[in-house]
Every structure is written in structure tokens, then in C-alpha cells.
């Protein structure tokens, strides 16, 4: 498998809305922070590995996953958006302003995940510096997730013929929260296989969606490095071996497992977060399964630095097929 990492990024990924975004613990500007740090490390070389989505995802693309009622009614309702985005003051803001400042960057990032998937199929490895909206389902947005970028990317790969409708697709979700939206979207789809390792003591505790997970690995608050990595290094190889002929894997690499994260409630060190990511990529590459990574959750001030560590490793290990 040819390996030539691609980084997908747009400066328009960052979400800024008159300071209201600061009321949410998620750093909605971490995408740009990651890019700036990588630029300091790699300089002009970074441009050689970077691609930008040329446009936002279109309504007909969104409609492959989301219902028309959700897109045209719920997502034009400020009160509904304030609940789904967990920013209650937005209920008083005109919908069009929310669409421009918040939903547009998310649609652009969703298009970025589609692009990342296409690049992964062609060159083995890609990272979208946003996305991972794994709580969004067909008819509902929640948990700061409005569009199911991974779900839409899978449908777009199928529609474009880049993968067949019965080709196996892996979703490896290592965000601290259960990826209930993805499980709900693909509940009856026997070609999508999900590994989800998450803190079962926190949101969303979706018991119905949990039944859809192929490799269900619940954790408890306070789980430490050794327990976490032991479980991952036991379960992930079995999962990959079971579905070894998969055409692509989507890796939801949430940094909210970090010990200083205010929401994830796990005790995973900075070094262990990087070890996790290394293990995922090396396991998939050894099995010759292309991988598209998305950022998902992360609620510490250091979240963007953890992402930088992982991308630094990817580029130094596989960029242009040799070490930098």
C-alpha cells in the first residue's frame, strides 16, 4: 500500500461567534491552533501535504444521511440549534447568523472528511483537522454535533463508486464518549463495523445504539494508562483481523481521554494518547487498510497540542515514504 499522508485543513474550520463559543468547554478554534503549530515544525513542507476542501458539503450530500425534515426544519430553528450545540444563548440569535458562523464551518469540515476519505483510499493515510461529529444521527443533532461527517463520507464513497455498497468499512471510535450517532445511522448496515471504546459513566449512555457496536469496550471513569492501552492492544488487533479485508477505516481520535480533560473523566497521559494513536495507525497500515483520521472531542487547553504530537509522528514516519 502506497503511503503519502494528506492533511486536510481550511482556516475557515475555526468557529468564532462574538465570543459565545467560549461558553462551551470545547475549543472551537483548535483546528487553526493545530495548523499553526505544525507550520512552526514543518515550515513550507507542510503545504506539500495539505489539501483544502474546495467547498462546503451540499444539501444533496447531506440528504444521503440526514432526513429532509431535520435539514430544513430543525436546522433552521435557533432554539433547536442552541440545544444541539449546547450553547443556550444561541436561542436568541437569528438562525442565519448561526448558520454562517457555526454551521458553515461544520459543513466545510464535513466536506473535509469526504476529501480525507478519498485521499486515504488513494494514498493510505489522511487526517482532517476537524470533524468527528459522532453524536449526530439521521434526525437529530446533539453534543455539539450537527452533521454526521463520517456517515456522509461513507455514503459519498459508495455513490461515487470509490467503494462498493458491500465493501467493509471500519469505524474505530476512541473518543471518550460513545459514538451513538454513527451506531444509529448504520444500525442495519451490515457492511460497516464499529469498534467503540468509551467512558460508559458519562454522556450519552445510549443503550439502544450500544447494541449496534461490533466491538463494544466500555470503560469507567478514572481508567488509567495501563488498563486503557491493554484493552486497546487486545481488542483492536482482533477487530482488524476479523474484518481484515476492509477497504477503509475511519479513526475518531478524540483527545478527551486525556487526564486533564474537563469532561472525559479518564486518566490517560499525554504520552499514552500518542501511544494510542501510533498503535491505531501502525495496526491498520500493517493490515494494509487505508485510514482517515478525524479530531472529534477534546476539552482541555492542551487538546490541540496532543493532536500536533500525533500528526508530527505521522508526517515524520510516512510523509513521502521516508522520514523527514
From TrEMBL:
Q: Does the keyword Hydrolase apply?
A: yes
Name a biological process GO annotation. Answer: epigenetic regulation of gene expression
What UniProt keywords are attached to this protein's entry? Hydrolase
Q: Quick check: keyword Hydrolase in the entry?
A: yes
Which Gene3D superfamilies does this one have? Histone deacetylase domain (3.40.800.20)
Q: Which residues form the Histone deacetylase domain?
A: 24-308
Extract the Pfam families matched here: Hist_deacetyl
Q: Which residues form a coiled coil?
A: none
Q: Which GO terms describe its molecular function?
A: histone deacetylase activity; hydrolase activity
Q: Which family does it belong to?
A: Belongs to the histone deacetylase family.
Any idea what this protein is called? Histone deacetylase domain-containing protein
- Organism equals Tolypothrix bouteillei VB521301
